[in-house]
Structure formats: structure tokens, C-alpha cells
Design brief:
Number of helices of chain A: 17
Strand content of chain A: under 5%
CATH architecture of chain A: Up-down Bundle
Number of domains of chain A: 1
CATH topology of chain A: Cytochrome C Oxidase, Chain A
Oligomer: heterotrimer
Largest interface: B-C, 49 and 49 residues
CATH superfamily of chain A: Cytochrome c oxidase-like, subunit I domain
Shape of chain A: globular
CATH superfamily of chain C: Cytochrome c oxidase, subunit III, four-helix bundle
Helix content of chain C: over 70%
Order of helices and strands of chain A: HHHHHHHHHHHHHHHEHHE
Largest sheet of chain A: 2 strands, antiparallel
CATH class of chain C: Mainly Alpha
Strand order of the largest sheet of chain A: 1-2
Distance between the termini of chain C: 50 Å
Chains: A mainly alpha, B mainly alpha, C mainly alpha
Chain lengths: 542, 97, 198
């Protein structure tokens, strides 16, 4: 045979992190693991489950809205469902999303480390996430029943409604700890555990995005923590800080809530942008255009993006001066995002482009995210926001950026990193078919919302005027097409998990470190910690 | 662990001196509160609190001696900037309605 | 990068955790600032009702406990197990007394029917209701952190006794100290804001 035995060992299946080492075996070897790769997969399983739950809730909402008047549920049920759809999608899917799954799995490998700085805390993060998720589910069936406040829990309604606000709010409070611990872990890891030669400017841009995100996770999540705690205290003992009858100011609740929740959307989008920055160079076979600009723009988005929260409050009673300042800062933060879009497109220019599934989803990200970003500008401008606030325009906007953005980036990440994580390749034709359904379905579902919004239809409404019927109907049909696409896509990936062809170590020709090790990776990532002497997108060397 | 032993040694005497400083500052801040300084009372009291915190951070918490890792230098100024920005932007609302 | 691996990065992790704690209290300080700005005289009245000597003594107690904490750590670094335990016990006692004082203060106020949602409090000016709402929330959250700190320090004491924390491996005690000092710093700000404002 003549192949050196070390190489045989590297490529032989079975010598991977799936093989249980250490004290625990089987299921226990997973739920008590401290291996960042296993933890990433644990998150993948849970997060996918909650994504599908959120999708089902969305499906039910769209069914209700297919025609004016009651269709399949009562108004109270609808209020609970849109609240849950938001809470689950935001706190259990998109916020943990890419950092918890792909950040955990790939960031240590990409920096040339054997694991994160605090592997046991990493496991704790997952456990806390699961506990928070279970508490959230418990709140559906206990107390006064599922919450109906919207995922924003605005006072005074959240203080008065008799549904199980306390448990739901407490669940989100617990989930926050998971996010904070992960943030601390990632910052420490990236600062202190890079391989020799892995300077800051040789880091993959995915790592930069995870780094910027980790700071935001760590610093602003405590603010929603205290806000939710105070809401709980308010309900339990009546401290009065948000109650006008006691001198409290409900608008202060909104300030504290959005001080977290706006940066939270950057927690959602920055890692997604990081994924795109990985995918584009590999499938254009060109180094990224403007590496430093993209790296610094991640930091700029994280920092400036933490100062724009008042743009959710233009019509709340906030002062005009504050509104003007927040509007200005909001336009400012659009600049670094735009820089990324320009640099991705510039990377493609004169590249040797292969539209494999990861790139297809990456290009779709750029398209859908741009639409979402541009619609955001209309909301950032004060005068137009008065008209658009709390309408379907906003619903369309955030689904374009979060779903069209982060959602499609997650689909791209799955198709990009699937061979590395599972050691198998998926069937290569089905993703294109799935994509077609997803793309058509997505736009059919959400574009009408933009129109409905500027025509005046309010969001979170159970019923609507007859004039909005046609677009609502189209939107619901879009949801069916979209769901078909999801079934095709996930079905293919799930099937390929068991029946896919064995994947090579580097099916895409990537230059970052994860592609230089086996698919799936060994338990301690590297036989020997590499000494890095080139950048992450130098394809000449691959 | 080697470098644990190498970490800078602060003499016990320094700690006690810092403690004396903190006690004195506490005394000052209580007496200042008794005086009528009008608009300046809050600022003076907060400045003294900041000085006390600075002593705890730099000496008890060793921040002054953590020279090797650059991150430490920026943590406190950074967090102060964040808090000031959050507070300031909120005040642009509250103070101008 | 070597420095991180030697201290296992855990000191950095602890500092980052402290930053997140600062933001946790930060939210409350923002609320305090806004409501004080809007209700200056009510907050002044509220402050006058609080027991200034009590607050000052508690401040001195925590400051001293920070000293004993630092001395405990330097004792461990010197290999002096006996004194590290003595200083740690002192820290624990002082912390316990702090909590005891807090309990008496709260009990006193509650006995006078001043607590969130009490009819007596609700009769008063809105600014005063807010003052006490913030007083209970902030000193309560702080007290919870003191309690957690005492539990951690107790565990550290056990580890020192068992010899698991010693002059070769003292990072857990140092990190616990960092946490304890932060709790002290937060009180350094709470004290003037609630007891001393004029």
C-alpha cells in the first residue's frame, strides 16, 4: 500500500471526536462532555428543534391570517402564539444560533486551539440554555397560561396581564446567563489561545465576527437581565420603578429593554456576516477584498450598534432630541454593514466562481439582507417611521434581515461545514431545488408585508380589514412554499447524515485551519498545534 | 503553575495603607454630606466614591500591577465609557421631554 | 499567549464576568439617576430617613473585609496557611455582620411599614415610593451578591484547609477576592447614593 500509517490514521473513519473517550460513554458522554465540538452539536440539536417549533407557530399564525375574522383560533390564542413565536425564534434560535453551534464547533479550530478557555463553563452554558428553554416551555402550561405580551414584554401590560409572565420572564433571564458565559469564554479563548503565528490579522473573519459578538453578549445581556428581574419584582412585590401610579416611567422600561435588544440583533447578524465572509472567498477562489475593513467593521457595528436603541422608541413619547440623535446614530451604523456588502461583492469580481450550495445561500444572504437593511433606513428616518412603526413594514423588515440574513447564513453554514462536522457529503442536487422553494417562498411570504405595512396594516393584529386580504393570502401561500423548501433542505441533510458519501478533509479547498484536519475532526483537533505562517484566504497554498 | 508564583507581590503594608486611605475617604465623604454644597454635593460625593473604587481596583484587585496583558488596561475605562454612553443617551430623552 | 495559558486564562474570565456584573448593576444605576433627576427633593427626604451611621459602619465593614481578603490571598502566596485561614474567617465574619446589619435595617423599615406596596409608602410622594423601590431593589441585589460571595469564600476556606488551594495554586482564591472586591466597590457607590445625598 505504501501510505504512511500516520496518514492512514488521519483519514481512517472512526478516529474522530465521535468516539467516546473519558469517563462517560453513550448519552452521558454527550451531555457531560467538555469537548467544544460535541457541545456545538448539542446546541445544534436543541436549536434546530426550537427553530422547527418556531416555524410551526409561524405556520399556524399564517393559517389564521389567511382570511379576515377567526379562522382556526381565538384572539387570545393568536396573541399567545405570536408572542411564543417571537420568544422562541429570538431567544432560543437566532441569538444562540451561530455562536453556540458554529462558534463553539469551529472557532477553537480556526484559531489553532484544542478547545475553548473554559470547557466546563462551556458545558454549563449548554445546561443553562436547556434549563431556560424548559422553563419557557413550562410557562406555557402553568400559571395563567402562555404569555400574550409580545416578545418585548412591554409594561404596563406585562405587569397586569394574568398569564404566566413571571415564569416566562424568568426563563429568558436564565437564558441570558448562557449567553453571558459563552461571551466570556469566547473572548478569553480568542485573546489567549491562538496558535503560534496566528496573529490578529491572520484570524478568519468568522473569528473576528464571533469575537465582536462575544463582547456584546457579555456586556448588554446583563441589562435585560436586570430589566426582567425588575419586571418580576414589580409583579411580585410592586417596587414601582415602571409603574406610573408610583412615579415610575414605562418608557424607562423600553430604554432598558432595547439597550439589550437592539445590540441583540447584532448578536444575531454579526456571526452570520462572519459565515458569509468565510464562504465567499472559498467559492470565488480569491482572497477577501478588504480584510481589515471587514474585521474593523465588525467592531464598529458592535460598538455603534449598541448606541442606537432609541430608534425602537421614536413614537413612544421619547424626547425629540433623543430621537434625532438615535436616528443619526442609526444611519451611521448602516455604513459598516454596507462596507461588508461592498467588500463581499468586490471579492466575487473576477473570481473563479463555483455556485455550490454554500455560495448559493451566501449570495442569497447578500440579496435578502440588503433588502432588509434598506427597509430599515425608512424606519431610521423619523418622519417615515411615524407612519411605519408597529405596522407590517417592520415585520417584513426584520424577517428580511433576521431570516433572510441570519437564517440563510445558517443554511449556508450548514451546507459549508456539514462535511467537516459529520464526515459525510450531502446529495449535491437537492439543495438547489430546496433553495428555489425557499427563495420563492420567502419573498412571497415577506415582500407583501412591506406593502401591507405602508398601506397601514398594524402588526400583531388578529383580524384585519378586507382591503388587506389579497396580500395576506399571498403571504400565507408563501409560507407553504417556504416550508416545503425547509422540508426538502433538512430532509436532504438528515438523510445524508446516515447515507451520504464519505467526505474528504477539504472538499471545498478552504485555507482556514478546520480544512487541514480530518472530517470529522479528531477529539483534540490537531495532532500537533500548527504554526501559522499565512492568512486565512490564501488559496495558492491549498 | 510557574507564572502564578511570578505574579507581582504587593506588600501587606501597602494593603493596610490603602485601607487607611479608604477609611479616611469614607470619613470625608460623610462630613461632606453634612455640608451644604448645593449643586456640587452629588458630584463631590461621587468623585470620592470613584477615588475609593480606584484604590480598591488598583491595589486590592492588582490592576495597577497587571502590566503583561494589555486587555486589563482598557477594561475599566471601557466599561465606564459604556455606562456613560448608556446614561447619557437615556438622559437625552428624560431631560428633554 | 503564554500568560493566558499559565493562569489558564481564568483571571481574565473572572474580570470579564465582573464587567458583566457592573452592567447588571448599571441598569439599576441608570434608573436611580433618572428618578433622582426627576424627584430631587423626594430622594433627599428618603435619604434623611435612612440611618446614616448604620450605612457608614457597613461601609467600613466592607472596606475592612476587602483588606482581610487581600491579606488572606497574600498569606496563601507566602505559604502561610494559618494566617490565610484567619484572614479568610475575618472576611467571612465581616460579611456576615454586614448582612446582619442589612437585615436589621430592612426589618426596621418594614416595622415602620415602609416597604414596596405598603399602604403607608403608597400615601407618600411618588418620588419617595421610587426611592424606596430602588433602595430595596439595589441593596437587595447587592445583599444577594454578598451572600453568594460568602458561600464562595466558605468553599475557598474548605479548599485551603484541604490543601487544594496553596502557594502553588491560588488562582481560585484570587478570583474569589476579585469578586469580593467588586461587591465592596458596588457598596462604595450605593452608600452615598442612598444615605448621603443632599
Amino acid at each position: 500500500m505504501g501510505v504512511p500509517s500516520e496518514i492512514l490514521k488521519e483519514t481512517q473513519p472512526g478516529i474522530s471526536f465521535y468516539e467516546s473517550k473519558g469517563r462517560f460513554h453513550g448519552l452521558l458522554g454527550w451531555i457531560f462532555t467538555t469537548d467544544h465540538k460535541r457541545i456545538g452539536l448539542l446546541y445544534l440539536l436543541a436549536i434546530l428543534f426550537f427553530f422547527l417549533t418556531g416555524v410551526s407557530l409561524g405556520f399556524l399564525m399564517r393559517l389564521e391570517l389567511i382570511a379576515p375574522g377567526p379562522t382556526i383560533m381565538r384572539p387570545q390564542t393568536y396573541n399567545a402564539i405570536f408572542t411564543l413565536h417571537g420568544v422562541i425564534m429570538i431567544f432560543l434560535f437566532v441569538i444562540p444560533g451561530i455562536p453556540a453551534i458554529f462558534g463553539n464547533f469551529f472557532m477553537p479550530i480556526q484559531i489553532g486551539a484544542r478547545d475553548v478557555a473554559f470547557p466546563k463553563i462551556n458545558l454549563l452554558s449548554w445546561w443553562v440554555y436547556m434549563i431556560g428553554a424548559l422553563l419557557a416551555i413550562l410557562s406555557l402550561f402553568t400559571g395563567g397560561g402562555p404569555i400574550d405580551t409580545g416578545w418585548t414584554f412591554y409594561v404596563p401590560y406585562s405587569l397586569r396581564t394574568t398569564v404566566n409572565v413571571p415564569l416566562a420572564v424568568f426563563a429568558v433571564f436564565i437564558l441570558g446567563f448562557s449567553s453571558i458565559l459563552t461571551g466570556i469564554n469566547f473572548v478569553t479563548t480568542i485573546h489567549g489561545f491562538r496558535a503560534p503565528g496566528m496573529t490578529w490579522f491572520r484570524l478568519p473573519l468568522f473569528v473576528w465576527s464571533i469575537y465582536a459578538t462575544a463582547w456584546v453578549q457579555m456586556l448588554v445581556t446583563p441589562v435585560i437581565g436586570i430589566t426582567l428581574l425588575l419586571t418580576l419584582l414589580e409583579r411580585l412585590v410592586g417596587v414601582g420603578v415602571f409603574d406610573p401610579a408610583k412615579g415610575g416611567d414605562p418608557i424607562l422600561y423600553q430604554h432598558l429593554f432595547w439597550i439589550y435588544s437592539h445590540p441583540a440583533v447584532y448578536i444575531m447578524i454579526l456571526p452570520a456576516m462572519g459565515v458569509i465572509s468565510e464562504i465567499i472567498p472559498v467559492f470565488a477562489r480569491r482572497t477577501i477584498f478588504g480584510y481589515k475593513a471587514i474585521a474593523f467593521s465588525s467592531l464598529a457595528i458592535a460598538s455603534v450598534g449598541s448606541l442606537v436603541w432609541g430608534h425602537h422608541m421614536f413614537v413612544s413619547g421619547q424626547s425629540d432630541l433623543a430621537s434625532i440623535i438615535f436616528s443619526f446614530l442609526t444611519f451611521l451604523v448602516a455604513v459598516p454593514s454596507a462596507i461588508k456588502v461592498f467588500n463581499w461583492v468586490a471579492t466575487l469580481y473576477k473570481g473563479s466562481i463555483e455556485v455550490e450550495p454554500p455560495l448559493l445561500f451566501g449570495l442569497t444572504f447578500i440579496f435578502l439582507f440588503s433588502i432588509g437593511g434598506l427597509t430599515g433606513l425608512f424606519q431610521g428616518a423619523l418622519a417615515t417611521d411615524v407612519h411605519l412603526h408597529d405596522t407590517y413594514w417592520v415585520v417584513g423588515h426584520f424577517h428580511y434581515v433576521i431570516f433572510g440574513g441570519t437564517g440563510f447564513a445558517i443554511f449556508g453554514a450548514l451546507h459549508y461545514w456539514f462535511p467537516k462536522m459529520f464526515g459525510r457529503m450531502y446529495q449535491r442536487k437537492i439543495p438547489y431545488l430546496a433553495w428555489a422553494f425557499l427563495f420563492v417562498g420567502f419573498n412571497t411570504l415577506y415582500f407583501p408585508m412591506l406593502i401591507l405595512g405602508w398601506e397601514g396594516m398594524p402588526r400583531r393584529y388578529y383580524d384585519y380589514l378586507a382591503q388587506f386580504h389579497t396580500l395576506q393570502l399571498i403571504s400565507t401561500i408563501g409560507s407553504w412554499i417556504l416550508i416545503t423548501g425547509l422540508i426538502l433542505m433538512f430532509g436532504n441533510l438528515f438523510y445524508s447524515l446516515f447515507r451520504g458519501e464519505r467526505a474528504e478533509n477539504n472538499p471545498w479547498g478552504g485555507a482556514t485551519l478546520e480544512w487541514q484536519i480530518t472530517s470529522p475532526p479528531p477529539a483534540d483537533n490537531f495532532k500537533k498545534i500548527p504554526v501559522v505562517d499565512s492568512g486565512p484566504y490564501e488559496f495558492g497554498k491549498v | 503553575m510557574e507564572s502564578e508564583r511570578k505574579s507581582p507581590v504587593v506588600k501587606d503594608r501597602t494593603y493596610v495603607l490603602v485601607w487607611v486611605g479608604l477609611v479616611i475617604l469614607t470619613g470625608i465623604t460623610v462630613s461632606v454630606a453634612g455640608m451644604n454644597l448645593g449643586r456640587w454635593s452629588v458630584s463631590v460625593v461621587l468623585i470620592i466614591a470613584a477615588i475609593k473604587s480606584g484604590l480598591v481596583l488598583n491595589y486590592f484587585m492588582h490592576l495597577k500591577y497587571e502590566k503583561r496583558i494589555k486587555l486589563f488596561k482598557w477594561m475599566i475605562p471601557g466599561i465606564l465609557a459604556v455606562l456613560i454612553l448608556f446614561l447619557g443617551l437615556t438622559f437625552f430623552d428624560v431631560a428633554f421631554r | 499567549m503564554e500568560e493566558y495559558r499559565d493562569t489558564t486564562g481564568s483571571k481574565i474570565g473572572m474580570w470579564l464576568f465582573l464587567l458583566s456584573e457592573i452592567l447588571l448593576f448599571g441598569g439599576l444605576f441608570i434608573l436611580y439617576s433618572v428618578y433622582r433627576f426627576k424627584n430631587p427633593s423626594a430622594f433627599h427626604l428618603g435619604a434623611e430617613e435612612l440611618n446614616r451611621p448604620f450605612g457608614a459602619i457597613n461601609t467600613l465593614i466592607l472596606i475592612t473585609s476587602s483588606l482581610t481578603m487581600a491579606l488572606s490571598i497574600s498569606s496563601v502566596k507566602r505559604g502561610d496557611r494559618k494566617w490565610s485561614l484567619i484572614f479568610l474567617m475575618a472576611t467571612l465574619c465581616l460579611g456576615f455582620v454586614f448582612l446582619g446589619n442589612k437585615y436589621f435595617e430592612w426589618a426596621g423599615k418594614i416595622h415602620h411599614e415602609i416597604y414596596p406596596n405598603s399602604p403607608r409608602l403608597l400615601e407618600r410622594d411618588k418620588g419617595e415610593i421610587l426611592f424606596y423601590g430602588l433602595y430595596y431593589s439595589m441593596t437587595g441585589l447587592h445583599g444577594l451578591h454578598v451572600l453568594i460571595g460568602l458561600v464562595v469564600l466558605f468553599i475557598m476556606g474548605a479548599l485551603i484547609l484541604k490543601g487544594k488551594v496553596n502557594e502553588a495554586h491560588f488562582i481560585p482564591l484570587e478570583n474569589s477576592g476579585l469578586y469580593w472586591h467588586l461587591v465592596d466597590i458596588i457598596w462604595i457607590f450605593l452608600f452615598p447614593l442612598f444615605y448621603l445625598i443632599t
